[in-house]
């Protein structure tokens, strides 16, 4: 619009050492202006941000205004934080925007009115200069552009505009307060009291619980991270942002790529709440979903290295390094080919890994298995998604390896069986041909003549047993069918060997799913307690309850007690008589009575 070429533009870098990394470097700007003046160039215009598009940070507008006055430059400000000028409390960094020469306001997105155009406000000391610059026009068509804005302002009024901006700011503050109480969440907020934009990301070694706002702000995302780790965190935060946007669409969260922080999740209700109708309940739901996803992210990140080591130790599996996959990892089953070409080996590899994926999805587990992303992923691999902390990594890897080995053996068995059947058919044809020749020799030449053969067969029938061949798939050999015609029943052949039971099958608790660690400590406790309970019952049965001193026995109880005593004495007496080889007292009494008679 200024009619200047692109060579007249100069981009000013942001801070690298001190201050926010999203703010313009004032010292470097001063140096660039001096270089332009010394080279004969005229500094004309400076465009600053009051709320950067990505993180929502505000440049040091006060210092920039001083430089512009020093070098006679025009200062233009734009950004989402300019909306907070309508509120009662405005931060000093945004309040300095009132001293600029011009500013651009995007009222359409702030108020939820897409048809309302952006507005540029500028200072004009001399109206003739504005007319000469083409900023004012007397054309009716151009004046009608402001009609939607005028109608909207008349409909909402001053209180309605302030209420919408205030509501968006309150949503940001509510989310920011909740994020302070969450572990493994980093925030990048310039002013916690008035910033309408909240940018956060997942980072495992970080916990801002118990820290002050200054300490949390000082420990924002400014530490260098290893390239691989940063790539993994970017992938996980990309997945987190997509999940939150899918679970809570009314929140309006999106994923942004920042130069220093990497991939982050942004919540800017001032740009989305008026259109989506975001309320406080949506922010609370967003926090609840975030609390549910953080344990999954931490568990997956922690078990990712263990999964890699376990796969590398397992024979037959190949670990695929894919930093762009948000999950436990990627594994491929290696197919050991014997003299096969590359095309056939590739087809076999694809077939085996696809069959592994199919069998894994048939298992009753909470894991997600897939072939990876549609674009950019590795081929012939099994992609494992997010996991929880109770995952048994060793069992998972063993199951994948055992499944792949079983599929490979079945494939080879099918190939070998096909070859054996083909050879068996050829051998059977040769044997049947030989048997047919022997039959012709036994019948003789005369029986082959049409009329003579019929007469001979009528006078002297030739009894020939039908011969055939049967192929035993279990033994892989040809057998004669004579026993079948003699016994009038088809033989079963040898019994196939029993199918071996997989050694990977583990005893599970009722309701416990596969690939989950069993609570062995609780199981041991329950078994010990049950055994001790049985011992206590046996001891209680062996004990004889003693009557209390103050307890009086009734007649029924006395009779029972006497009967028990007499029974015990009789039993003891019988035992002693048996040991002493003496007859019992009853036998002695009978003999005395007979002698008296």
From TrEMBL:
Family: Belongs to the group II decarboxylase family.
Gene Ontology biological process terms from the UniProt entry: carboxylic acid metabolic process
Domain PDXDC1/PDXD2 second as annotated: residue spans: 195-301
Cofactor: pyridoxal 5'-phosphate
Coiled coil residues, start to end: 418-445
Ranges of biased composition (kind: Polar residues): 521-532
UniProt key word Coiled coil: yes
Organism: Sula dactylatra
Matches recorded under Pfam families: PDXDC1-like_cen, PDXDC1-like_cen2, Pyridoxal_deC
Molecular function terms, GO-annotated: carboxy-lyase activity; pyridoxal phosphate binding
Region (Disordered): 484-597
Keyword entries, A-Z: Coiled coil, Decarboxylase, Lyase, Pyridoxal phosphate
Protein name: Pyridoxal-dependent decarboxylase domain-containing protein 1
Stored InterPro entries: GrpII_AminoAcid_Decarb, PDXDC1-like_2nd, PDXDC1-like_3rd, PyrdxlP-dep_de-COase, PyrdxlP-dep_Trfase, PyrdxlP-dep_Trfase_major
SUPFAM superfamilies in the cross-refs: PLP-dependent transferases (SSF53383)
Domain PDXDC1-like third: 307-412
Domain of life, per lineage: Eukaryota
Classification lineage: Eukaryota, Metazoa, Chordata, Craniata, Vertebrata
């Amino acid at each position: 619009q200024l009619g200047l070429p692109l060579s007249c533009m100069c981009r000013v870098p942001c801070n690298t050492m001190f201050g926010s990394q999203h703010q313009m470097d004032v010292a470097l700007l001063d140096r660039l202006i001096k270089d332009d003046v010394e080279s004969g160039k005229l500094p004309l215009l400076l465009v600053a941000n009051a709320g950067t598009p990505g993180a929502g940070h505000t440049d040091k507008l006060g210092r920039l205004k001083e430089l512009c006055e020093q070098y006679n430059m025009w200062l233009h400000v734009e950004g989402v934080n300019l909306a907070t000028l309508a509120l009662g409390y405005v931060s000093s960094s945004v309040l300095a925007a009132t001293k600029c020469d011009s500013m651009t306001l995007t009222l359409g997105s702030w108020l939820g009115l897409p048809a309302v155009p952006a507005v540029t406000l500028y200072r004009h000391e001399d109206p003739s200069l504005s007319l000469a610059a083409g900023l004012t026009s007397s054309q009716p068509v151009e004046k009608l552009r402001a009609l939607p804005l005028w109608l909207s302002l008349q409909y909402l009024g001053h209180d309605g505009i302030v209420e919408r901006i205030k509501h968006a700011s309150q949503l940001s503050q509510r989310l920011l307060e909740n994020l302070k109480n969450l572990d493994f969440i980093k925030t990048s907020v310039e002013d916690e009291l008035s910033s309408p934009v909240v940018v956060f990301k997942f980072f495992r070694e970080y916990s801002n619980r118990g820290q002050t706002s200054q300490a949390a702000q000082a420990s924002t995302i400014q530490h260098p991270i290893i390239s691989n780790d940063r790539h993994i965190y970017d992938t996980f935060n990309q997945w987190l942002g997509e999940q939150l946007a899918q679970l809570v669409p009314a929140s309006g969260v999106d994923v942004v790529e920042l130069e220093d922080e990497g991939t982050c999740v942004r919540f800017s209700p001032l740009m989305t709440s008026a259109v989506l109708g975001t309320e406080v309940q949506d922010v609370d739901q967003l926090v609840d979903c975030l609390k549910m996803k953080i344990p999954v992210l931490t568990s997956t990140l922690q078990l990712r290295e263990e999964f890699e080591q376990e796969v590398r130790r397992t024979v037959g599996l190949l670990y695929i390094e894919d930093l762009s996959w948000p999950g436990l990892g990627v594994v491929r089953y290696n197919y050991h080919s014997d003299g096969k070409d590359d095309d056939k080996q590739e087809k076999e590899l694809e077939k085996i890994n696809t069959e592994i994926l199919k069998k894994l999805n048939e298992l009753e587990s909470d894991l997600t298995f897939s072939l990876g992303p549609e674009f950019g992923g590795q081929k012939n691999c099994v992609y494992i998604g997010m996991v929880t902390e109770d995952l048994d990594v060793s069992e998972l890897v063993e199951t994948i390896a055992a499944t792949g080995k079983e599929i490979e053996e079945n494939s080879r068995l099918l190939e070998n069986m096909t070859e054996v059947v083909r050879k068996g058919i050829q051998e059977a044809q040769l044997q049947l041909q030989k048997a047919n020749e022997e039959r012709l020799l036994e019948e003789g030449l005369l029986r082959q003549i049409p009329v003579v053969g019929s007469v001979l067969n009528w006078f002297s029938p030739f009894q020939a047993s039908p011969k055939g061949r049967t192929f035993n798939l279990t033994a892989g050999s040809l057998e004669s069918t004579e026993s079948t015609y003699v016994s009038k029943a088809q033989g079963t052949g040898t019994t196939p060997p029993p199918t071996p039971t997989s050694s990977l099958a583990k005893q599970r608790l009722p309701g416990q799913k596969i690939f989950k660690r069993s609570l062995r400590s609780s199981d041991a406790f329950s078994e010990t307690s049950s055994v001790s309970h049985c011992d206590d019952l046996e001891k209680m049965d062996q004990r004889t309850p003693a009557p209390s001193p103050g307890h009086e026995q009734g007649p029924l109880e006395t009779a029972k007690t006497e009967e028990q005593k007499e029974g015990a004495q009789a039993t003891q007496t019988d035992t002693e008589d048996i040991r002493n080889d003496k007859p019992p007292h009853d036998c002695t009494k009978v003999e005395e009575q007979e002698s008296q008679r």
